[in-house]
Amino acid sequence: MMWGNGRRVILKDSTLREGLDVPGVALDPGQKRALLVRLAELQVPEAELVAPGHFDADIKVLQELGVADLPIASSGLIYGNGPECLRQIADAGNVLDRVDILMPVAAARPPAGLKEKAALLREAVQAATGHLAQVGAGFPHSLQVGREVVVELCLEAVAAGATRITLYDTNGAADPWEVGEVVGAVRRASDVEICFHAHNDLGMATANSLSAVRAGATCLDVTINGLGDRAGNASLEQVALALHNRGADHGLRLELLPGLARWVAEATGVPLSQLAPVVGEFIFCHKSPSHLVSPRLFEAFDPELMAMERTISKN
């Protein structure tokens, strides 16, 4: 089914933030820069590089790496309710191209009251616009609260100067219908750019990401090989191919994805399954006799698109 019609969708890579939350995964500065170079070659437009939990350490590494000379925009996250929020915003302005101010929407996460959340959000977003040209706002647990709460806080952020809203399915429990409803509600309330951040705890990250685009999102958070906290995030390679097949335009060089997936698997020590969608070793391997007459009928996309080859299993 075609529904993109050339529609532009930004794929923002978060491997160097979410991917480093995988137990046992650590990249040295040289590996981080090498990954950024590869992402730039892939023509990924933006990489999220700074996590709110270790902001100062990440900023220091970026200063040492010299990311400003790479043709890829850099961004990071800052909690709008954090005790050092304003200082971090000022520091980010010297290193990053963009910051997204986070405000948890769940009542169980401080600040507890909606009015207090809105007030701190406005203050932080307004402060950020004084230091950076590109400022967004992100809302963890957007799919776990009432959509009216999400819409209200989104409008507060836009009024304060945010030019992008990121909606997080933080615990990975949402389904495509829920995602479509929440993204659609924000889209109807504002023409602001919407980004969607999926987690894969129930195996729906790719489907939820596509649903977000259908409902009006024009930006998606993705990670190479789906690396990320717990069960991971939306896979860059899966989302890129699914969007391509449906006529959307993300501008990525798809033929580079298999090599990048293997490089990341080796660098992180997290194996790439032979059965991995899109980039797995067996994706174009046919064994069933009924497939061999016309293998193309059993393939989701042309192997040439990914610079891969069709094979026949002998056993």
How would you describe this structure to a colleague?
The protein is α/β, with parallel strands linked by helices. It folds into 2 domains: 10-268, Aldolase class I (TIM Barrel, Alpha-Beta Barrel); 284-315, no CATH class. The chain has helices spanning 29-42, 55-65, 85-92, 114-129, 147-160, 176-189, 205-215, 236-245, 257-268; strands spanning 10-13, 46-50, 73-79, 98-102, 134-139, 164-168, 193-197, 219-222, 285-286, 311-312. Strand 3, helix 3 and strand 4 (98-102) form a beta-alpha-beta unit. Helix 1 (29-42) packs antiparallel against helix 9 and helix 5 packs across helix 6 (176-189). The longest helix has 16 residues, at 114-129. It is globular and about 65 Å long. The mean pLDDT is 94.
According to CATH, what is the topology of the largest domain?
TIM Barrel
Sketch the topology as an H/E string, one letter per element. Answer: EHEHEHEHEHEHEHEHHEE
Q: Give the strand order of the largest sheet, numbering strands 1, 2, ... along the chain.
A: 1-2-3-4-5-6-7-8
CATH class of the largest domain: Alpha Beta
- Whole-number tally of structural domains: 2
Which percent range describes the beta-strand content? 5-15%
Radius of gyration: 20 Å
Distance from N terminus to C terminus (CA atoms, Å) equals 35 Å
The global form is globular
> What is the average of the pLDDT values?
94
Per CATH, the superfamily of the largest domain is: Aldolase class I
Count of strand segments:
10
- Please work out how many helical segments DSSP would assign: 9
Level of helix content? Answer: 25-40%
Class based on secondary structure composition and strand pairing = alpha/beta
Unreliable segments (pLDDT under 50, ≥5 consecutive)?
Answer: none
Question: What kind of sheet is the major sheet?
Answer: 8 strands, parallel, barrel
Query: At CATH's second level, what is the architecture of the largest domain?
Result: Alpha-Beta Barrel
